[in-house]
Amino acid sequence: MTDRTIRVGHSPDPDDAFMFYGLASGKVKLPGIRIEHLLEDIQSLNERAIRAELEVTAISAHAFSAVADRYWIMRTGASMGEGYGPVLISRLYGSLGELRGKTVGTPGPLTTATLLFKTFTEGIRNVDMPFDAIMGAVDRGEIDAGLLIHEGQITYASLGYQKVIDFGEFWQEETHGLPLPLGLDVVRKDLGEELAGKLSAGLRESIAYGYAHQDESIPYALKWGRGIDTALGEKFVKMYVSGLTIDMGEKGKEALEYLFRAAHERGLIARVPGIVLF
Fold first, then answer.
1. Cβ–Cβ contacts within 10 Å for residue 61, how many?
2. Active site residue 150
3. Which of 10, 75, 78, 159 could anchor a disulfide with 16, C-beta 3.0 to 4.6 Å?
4. Whole-angstrom Cα distance, residue 8 to residue 140?
5. DSSP state at residue 110
6. What is the pLDDT of residue 277?
7. Which domains, from first to last, does the chain contain?
């Protein structure tokens, strides 16, 4: 019998690479399933999910509100900040008040970072651009501040930028300690519950393999580190591949529900989606 091909989309980032190392290397196998990996930036994966192109894909938590009719959330694979998250930085300004009437670069309309910015700030314009173009646009004076995701969250200070707000710190206070849901892995509903559960378990096994064999998985993950050294790369990976990544549980589900309610109250998403974990 021919193996069934399952296309899995994830970002070319150290944390996603670490999560999928077991499966990508062939060290973790799913009987009867052949995994085809597609590496694309998160905004592209969000757009693919809206078209329901991939059987399994990483998406921004924000994007789930637009695809909940076609996908389930996998309890494994979420990226959640625990007191840290997207950081708004500037060369010239140090507070949200100073940025009123000014322009911030944000990393894409469906990213959770942009949703957080729009939900919890007032009177600040935003312009979407590729996440890796934001620092340069700040330096050239094309925007007054920038919202950083990925490694920029841990390198900005060494590059001389001022922190205006860390949305992870803000969120922890706002929600009285809930994790900040940033990225999710989702599985298409037409695969059925049995296969969805099998794929979620396979990803959980892949993460476990990565942690048990860090001498293999960390160097592999850092191929996508965009110039960060090994120590910073390992720190970033372990920030976003945590116990909540292995299983977000009720705490992760509660955090997602809070995010969607807050965004819906601001009119930023059409509805609060139901959440079923696989």
1. 26
2. yes
3. 10
4. 37
5. T
6. 94
7. 4-80+180-265 (3.40.190.10), 87-174 (3.40.190.10)
Distance CA 24, CA 224 (A): 14
pLDDT tens-digit series, residues 78-95 = 999 999 999 999 999 999
SS3 content of the chain, % helix, strand, coil (to 5): 45, 20, 35
Is the Cα dihedral 203, 208, 209, 210 positive or negative? positive
- Is residue 225 very low, low, confident or very high in pLDDT (cuts 50, 70, 90)? confident
The H-or-E segment that residue 221 falls in is helix 214-221
Residues in the chain: 278
d(CA 241, CA 79): 7
Which residues touch 194 (CB under 8 Å, ≥6 apart)? none
User: Which residues is 188 bridged to in the sheet?
Assistant: 71
Phi/psi-derived region of residue 121, left when phi > 0, alpha when psi is between -120 and 50, beta in every other case: beta
Cα–Cα dist 255/181, whole Å: 7
**101, exposed or middle or buried, with CB in 10 Å at 0-12, 13-18, 19+?**
exposed
Catalytic residue among 10, 62, 150, 264: 150
Which of helix, strand or coil describes residue 240? helix
Cβ contact 215:230 at 8 Å:
no
pLDDT tens figures, 15-69:
999 999 999 999 999 999 999 999 998 889 999 999 999 999 999 999 999 999 9
Q: What is the pLDDT of residues 157-186, one digit of tens each?
A: 999 999 999 999 999 999 999 999 999 999
